[in-house]
Amino acid sequence: MTRRIILSLLVISSLWWTCRENRTAGKVEVNWRVIRYTEPAGVIELGWEPITGEQPVAYVPSDRRWRAEMPDWACDRRDEIVAEIKGETKHMNFRWQEYD
After folding, report:
1. Beta partners for residue 59, in sequence order
2. Strand, helix or coil at 90?
3. Structural domain boundaries of the chain?
């Protein structure tokens, strides 16, 4: 019985480690009016603003503007990066607004 428990714990920890390592390399930080997304390749920042009595608003460049303004490493990854940022900031309850 003890062997089974130890074996199970080893398998679970191995799966956890594998899943952890397969996550996107990005890190998301929310500071005063700035959402910072960092990867080994570089950093991008999106703006946000608090609104008294309403949801805070986070601003995302339109697809055209994203391609024009973002660094090369992020240029073709808008959907992926924005999805990760949204997932990591869902506790902030942002209202996402696209701008051009």
Report:
1. 97
2. helix
3. 25-99
